[in-house]
Amino acid sequence: MPTFRDALDGLWARYDPAQLATPGAFARNPKLVWDWYEYRREMVRAAQPNPGHYALAVLQKRFPHLRIITQNVDDLHERAGSAGVIRLHGSIAANRCFFDCQGSPTPVDISTLTWDKNNGPPCCPHCGRWVRPDVVWFGEMLPPDAIEAATFASAHADVMLVVGTSGVVTPAANMPFIAKRAGAFIIEVNPVESQITPIADLWLAGPSGEVLPRLVEALGAP
Ligand SMILES: [Zn+2]
């Protein structure tokens, strides 16, 4: 999946994602931001898990305590067969009330709602105001339960695989340091050096879609 910092094509090329993925942008123009997310949801539906996603699912079957912590908002890990994914930036498939009118968060299942799609987002069934995608926008706090779960998993890890991250966006970038302090063996999978490389016990230089399947292969039959 392209991240939303990557160039967008077609209709959306002239928009800066950083100007769309904010609570202020949504408040000013909910239809614009909602339509952009509908476009991105369509891209997610059309995407397929890569060999790296499948390799992690295989590892999780072999090591049931393996937890996946991700900053991605797509569902490709689940579609590859992984479970219990800790989502630091939410899920693009999910929605909630923009005002969290029933407490934070207030999830809304839009599959049962009807609304005029030319008019932007559906209305919250509780308060009648806008529904928004359940993702973390610029300037927003990360979900505290996800941070807590990720911190716990990191502090109790024997081994941590750090896959394809620049290691600069906190608090996700803190997790390898938490694991390292707790004595975990840190394996970085990344074609390029990152902020994590200096603390990595092992650096497997290459893209995750190539390195992770080979790692699974190297482990041999269970
Ligand atoms: Zn509401």
Report on this model:
The protein has helices at 17-20, 23-28, 30-46, 51-62, 76-80, 144-155, 175-181, 208-219, and strands at 69-70, 86-87, 90-97, 131-135, 159-163, 185-189, 202-204. With 222 residues, the chain is of the alpha/beta class. The protein has two domains: 10-47 and 90-135, 2-Layer Sandwich (SIR2/SIRT2 'Small Domain'); 51-89 and 142-219, Rossmann fold (3-Layer(aba) Sandwich), CATH 3.40.50. The strands form three sheets. It has a three-stranded parallel sheet. Strand 1 (69-70), helix 5 and strand 2 form a beta-alpha-beta unit. Helix 6 packs parallel to helix 7 (175-181). It is elongated and about 55 Å long. The structure holds zinc ion. Residues 97, 99, 101, 106, 124, 126-127, 129 line the site of zinc ion (ZN). Residues 97, 99, 101, 106, 124, 126-127, 129 line the site of zinc ion.
